[in-house]
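Have a close read of the entry that follows and walk me through the local backbone shapes. See right below:
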Amino acid sequence: MGMSIMKAKNNQAKNTDKRQRILDTSLELIMKQGIQATSMSKVSKESGVAVGTIYHHFESKEAIITELYRHFKLEMLQVMTTDLNVSDTLDSIFTEVVIRLFRYSKINPNALEFCETFASSPIIDSKVREEVTQAFQGFTENFIGKMGEEGVLNSTRKDMLMIYLNGAIFSMLRAQIAGQIDWSEAEVRDYMRLVWKGISL
């Protein structure tokens, strides 16, 4: 009985390792040579995982891309929101969230670039896109709601605010990972003070 359980756990660990190798290799190949040039056979060759095993974990290349997108987006949200000091002022929380995303993008530039590349792609499964969108909207709408409660939110329409924030934050991050800017965290904080003025009273 004990040996059977150990064998099952070892098999599960091996499967998890293979699945991760498939994802890691696919990300590397897609970012280097593009989606069209990234075939399942290339993923198999570079990862050392048999093609049949890849299809056991993922039914298609599109399924791999969808899983990468889901993983990175939800990981970003977790990094942004875990253990925030809710007793801080809203502008401090706002800046801290972006600083965390800034740090994440410096450590994982491929993750941010990948998500930006496939943000509007029809490749991403609609249910996964909806899951991710709702997760981010839940956090954002809750924060904007608190700004309204505290009387610091300006009168700009919410849809305009969302477009403004998305553009201001992610254009900065894209410029950073592209090497167009090389900001310190202090400079990001200065920049976020400007962005905060655009949404607050």
